Amino acid sequence: MEKESQSIDPVPFWKRKRYLIALLTFFGFFNVYTLRVNLSVAIVSMTEIRNVTLTDGTIIQEQDFDWDSKQRGVVLSAFFYGYITTQFIGGYLSLKYGGNVIFGCGIGVTALLTLLTPYAASVSIYALVAVRVIEGVFEGMTFPACFHVWSKWAPPMERSRIMGFNMAGLYVGTVVGMPFSGILASTLGWQSIFYVFGGIGVVWFILWLLIVRKSPADDPRLSTAERNYIMSSLGDEPNKLTEVNVPWMKIFTSGSVWAIIIAHFCEAWGFFTMFTQLPSFLKDMLSFDLTSSALLSGVPYLALSICVCCSGYLADWFQMKGILSTRNVRRIFCCGSFAVQACLMILVAFVIDKFYSVLILTFAVGAGAFSLSGYAVNHLDIAPTYASIIWGISNTLGSVPGIVSPLLTGYIVTTPTEAEWQIIFYITAGFYLFGSIVYWFLCSGTLRPWAKQEPIELY
User: Fold this and answer.
1) What percent of the chain has pLDDT over 90?
2) For the residues 438-443, what does the mean pLDDT come to?
3) What pTM did the predictor assign?
4) In 73-88, which positions are buried (b, 16+ CB within 10 angstroms) versus exposed (e)?
5) Calpha distance 23→25 (Å, rounded)
6) What is the rounded average pLDDT of the residues 270-275?
7) Residue 288 backbone zone (phi > 0: left; psi -120 to 50: alpha; other: beta)
8) Which residue, among 288, 362, 276, 326, has the nearest Cα to 41 in the 3D structure?
9) Contact, 278 vs 165, CB < 8 A?
10) What phi and psi, each to the nearest 5 degrees, are found at residue 150?
């Protein structure tokens, strides 16, 4: 570590290939969320009842799809049925074929299927659900594939900043995707949402395949100086095949692991509830038109994208200065974030106002960034050897709210009325409160005894 910290990259930063890959990964995750969020806005337009004036002056009502709230819930949750199935598979395929291939194909195939979405919807709701499930299958592989890419390309001292920059692409995608989807739907029709974002995804896929290789050793266009720097900083680690005796029983009976899993689930419940339902809430309860609803839906995620950059640096600062222990940093950031979000969810349930509701929801979503400096990195504290496994477990279970929340909302919010939406906010607040209590008492910031096993090298 000491040698690594003293080494200096001889390549000027503007010529470093890994930074170009980081930029492409940022836009890859940008596509991941624009391709995911587009339906949340489009479905408002797809099911909207419009007044149409005929040539003889007669006014009739027109609706592209007469789906009720339960059917809309099924459509919105369909993506996550596929997404939940490929968290582990994505890691395995990345090891076999390369994270660059799996990450690219995961987004590229999703983009192609997005182009087919308007046709699938015109066939039947079942065809649309099938397309969304398959999209989820391919997008589910992107996160583990990304971790594999950076295990080959990122020097250890740069991994935190690179991954933080990449993750920001998710929220920027939401910030851009929601309002732009509303503008497209209002000006060019809801079909244009899928054609535009699907087309952007295909262009990105082509660039990714042309530029990114599995590792520095496989890239003939990489400078010798940068290749030597990356590979020397990693040592022999990327080239070793290892076999690890995973202590599955110890993992699943560890309170600190369950603290991460439960916190991840509770944060995901709030995130996916807002992610899928915010456009509908703004239109149904606050009477915003589609364009305004989509524009305002992106505001909370703008706050989130800003806060997520600040929270990581702040958490590291508390640790480096010795002000807080690792455990207390994780607890305070995660539980404090959950407590604030729970209070704001209860508050917005009573404040149905165009200005204050949007303001409260913006603070609520933005506050979620601080929880990521708690549970989302805690697996590296307690079990770095098995961090990817724990991440796969928690992210798999953390995808369940993406399925259940839209379905539950569809069954509760049927009229819709203020009282129905209040139930949704109460449930969300309850999850945040539960997650805060569990994580506070079960969280750990130190290496667990069962996680000290070293990998066995295979030659």
Assistant:
1) 38
2) 96
3) 0.74
4) bbbbbbbbbbbbbbbb
5) 5
6) 88
7) beta
8) 276
9) no
10) -80, -15
